[in-house]
């Protein structure tokens, strides 16, 4: 029986490093070098001391500097390496799997800036098996790949790698923040809490930066915004700046702005033919009676456009009390909505929690006796809810219209079908997780993993 032909390599070959998101890279085979090396720029260590990670950028195609891939991997060592020109450098060492000619094997790579080199990767003799034959006069003895494979990269399933995530919040110790941190760390990511109010920005044409406590923040793969209503405008500016640095923002500043502007949100939902309680808008109206009539007459609900967690939401049970409240709001020179009161809902609504276009959990919120607002912050109680197909469709569509990746969609269940009360861009996790017993935080992190792409630039249109 004839023996298998020996595995042969030329002095240059195409290699795939798929765990790093690099399906093709041209490598020089160099038996004179013991250590293998990979081109890397903007090398940033992160993560805890007991499990260090490193994040870096690479332009795999020397002829296309605009093709920039973000990579990250666990650090296995730091090693002093002497380059071909005699310079000594302390480099990070990572381990990944290489694919070449149908073979897959583990390989250690040192990270170094090789942008002046013709090859973005060097395969040293430490990664070459003794039985392999290297022909220094031949090129590409193994099947070629080619950089054209990167053309479809943004639409491909992303690689799994440790992500560096920023949690943008002013309340790092509340339930939602703690659960997101736990879920991210459990899945091998590094998540850092950033106080929105302590961020400041340098806005210029050279490179976008976000500063924090006297230093420029590093590049993040993703940002999870948990921006409070009292800091919406500044929080959105900070979030846009993170987007300009290349970070993927789970909910964009534009989507948050649309959801927080209740008038705009209602107008967008109405244009999409999504059912809502009859709503009228006013800014210091002179025709008080006419405004109340537009909403169907008493009883009506009045909502300040800046209301949150049930604050700034009032019920007027009679025509006279409705007109008095409208006049009072007018005296405050306030922007407010007047909305039909759906009495058949019985002080209850349903919150559908949407992540990535899917309803991952739902709870029924019941107001306490004598209260019409079902918010849990106002004493309401929660229990798991089973949604009808129509209710699921409405919740998904409402989040889609406002372009929210994560949303809490509040629905009223009526004889005419579900009606959208509000769409929340920073829904709390405590009520929904306790009511359903589901790990909603994990679903958010899992979704984040699917939308962060290897390409390094995520830009939100302004």
TrEMBL record:
Pfam families: RimK, Rimk_N, Zn_protease. GO terms for biological process: SOS response; translation. Its cofactor is Mn(2+); Mg(2+). Coiled coil: none annotated. PANTHER family: RIBOSOMAL PROTEIN BS6--L-GLUTAMATE LIGASE (PTHR21621:SF7), RIBOSOMAL PROTEIN S6 MODIFICATION PROTEIN (PTHR21621). In the C-terminal section; belongs to the RimK family. This is Probable alpha-L-glutamate ligase.
């Amino acid at each position: 029986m004839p023996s298998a032909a020996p595995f042969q390599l030329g002095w240059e070959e195409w290699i795939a490093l798929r765990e790093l998101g690099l399906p093709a890279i041209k490598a020089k085979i160099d038996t004179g070098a013991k250590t293998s090396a990979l081109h890397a720029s903007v090398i940033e260590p992160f993560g805890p001391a007991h499990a260090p990670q490193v994040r870096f950028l690479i332009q795999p195609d020397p002829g296309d500097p605009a093709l920039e891939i973000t990579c990250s991997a666990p650090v296995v060592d730091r090693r002093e390496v002497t380059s071909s020109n005699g310079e000594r450098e302390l480099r990070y060492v990572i381990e990944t799997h290489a694919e070449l000619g149908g073979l897959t094997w583990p390989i250690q790579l040192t990270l170094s800036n090789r942008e002046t080199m013709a090859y973005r990767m060097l395969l040293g003799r430490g990664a070459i098996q003794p039985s392999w034959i290297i022909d220094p006069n031949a090129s590409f003895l193994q099947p070629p790949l080619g950089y054209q494979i990167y053309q479809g990269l943004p639409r491909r399933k992303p690689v799994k790698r440790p992500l560096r995530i920023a949690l943008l919040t002013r309340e790092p110790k509340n339930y939602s923040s703690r659960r997101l941190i736990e879920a991210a760390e459990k899945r091998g990511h590094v998540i850092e809490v950033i106080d929105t109010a302590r961020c400041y920005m340098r806005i210029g044409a050279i490179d976008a930066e976000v500063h924090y406590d006297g230093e420029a923040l590093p590049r993040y793969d993703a940002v999870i915004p948990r921006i409070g209503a009292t800091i919406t405008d500044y929080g959105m500016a900070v979030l846009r700046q993170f987007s300009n640095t290349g970070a993927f923002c789970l909910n964009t500043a534009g989507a948050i702005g649309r959801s927080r502007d209740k008038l705009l949100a209602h107008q967008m939902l109405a244009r999409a033919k999504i059912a809502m309680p009859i709503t009228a808008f006013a800014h210091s109206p002179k025709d008080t009676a006419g405004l109340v009539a537009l909403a169907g007459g008493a009883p009506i609900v009045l909502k300040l456009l800046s209301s949150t967690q049930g604050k700034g939401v009032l019920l007027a049970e009679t025509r006279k009390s409705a007109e008095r409240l409208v006049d009072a709001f007018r005296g405050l020179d306030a922007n407010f909505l007047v909305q039909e009161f759906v009495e058949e809902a019985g002080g209850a609504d349903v919150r559908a929690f949407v992540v990535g276009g899917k309803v991952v959990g739902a709870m029924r919120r019941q107001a306490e006796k004598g209260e019409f607002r079902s918010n849990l912050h106002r004493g309401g109680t929660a229990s798991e809810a089973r949604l009808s197909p129509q209710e699921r469709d409405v919740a998904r569509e409402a989040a889609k219209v406002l372009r929210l990746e994560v949303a809490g969609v509040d629905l009223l269940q009526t004889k005419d079908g579900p009606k959208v009360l509000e769409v929340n861009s920073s829904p709390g996790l405590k009520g929904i997780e306790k009511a359903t017993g589901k790990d909603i935080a994990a679903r958010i992190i899992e979704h984040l993993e699917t939308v962060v792409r290897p390409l390094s630039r995520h830009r939100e249109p302004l």
